[in-house]
Design brief:
alpha/beta, 40% helix, globular, 2 domains, 332 residues, six-stranded parallel sheet, TIM Barrel
Amino acid sequence: MKHTIFKRALLIMSLMAVLGILVYEARTIYHTPVAKGTHRTRTANADRLVRHLFSLTPTPDRVYYQNKVIVLMYHEVTKAPPDPGALRLTNFTKQLDEMKANGFRWITMKEYTDFILHKAKVPDNALLMTFDDGYESFYTDTFPVLKAYRVPATNFLITSTISNPKHIGIRKLTWDQIQQMHAEGIDFYNHTNDQHAYGYSNAARTKQKPLLMGPVYSKKLGRMETEDEFKQRVYTDLGTADKKLFKHLHNDRNVLAFPYGGYTKETLEICRSLGIDVTFTVKRGINSPGQTNGYRVNAGGIHNIPEVLVQYMKEGAPLRPLPFAQGPNQAS
């Protein structure tokens, strides 16, 4: 009997050692500099290796977590990603296939806020899909896929950029496009009106921080803001965004995603005074009732591997980083 137990323990240790070697090789493939022209080959080899590790038999009837919700965070999802932070549409589709095959259940923002604020029931393996910034590609590329898979989702808008031809940068949505998608089940909430940026956090203008994280240097005033001026700026901006959202969509609740995940105790107090009872950070984790400042898992990025993401979700979205699937969990 002791000999059998010893043999089993030895086998388990051997398997763990082999897995460790494979993981090390995968990391090496991804992070070792390569000669020009060989990057694609090494990336393809890494993809095959990691998929071999994580492409397990689907478990659609298994319960991974109960009375909790994982919130996924995306930015641009498009056919041709313009930068490393964007996710290729084909990979997004693979993610949805993996989620569906493994028994995850998509919920709406209404279901999520009722769960957070009122302990309403959610299905096992509940999952909320969120997108930031309101890129036009959400309408042209992402929305048709969401519609085909019948996936509810929320997009957090920088409202000053909507239907704004003078906006500099990647083209954003129009209110007509937003209203069309809203009529078909997509929700839109607050990502500030015009505070999606960094500001100087000292008079010497040598340090920066997100605009919702405290007083910044005011070019107009020629000095640092006072604490009261900071609070008034944030109050006015967030209130303006919610008024625009109500005007165009008649939202019956207020939800905010902090740009870059940046907030302070004072910012949260301003949110509550405006009736914004549910907010989101960019911190990894899983949400339980009462977690009004929610966690989100970054599911985007050019190097995302759908199988790894879903395996991470099956583990209940622990605070450790996703292996191979993405870089640091920093997002706008």
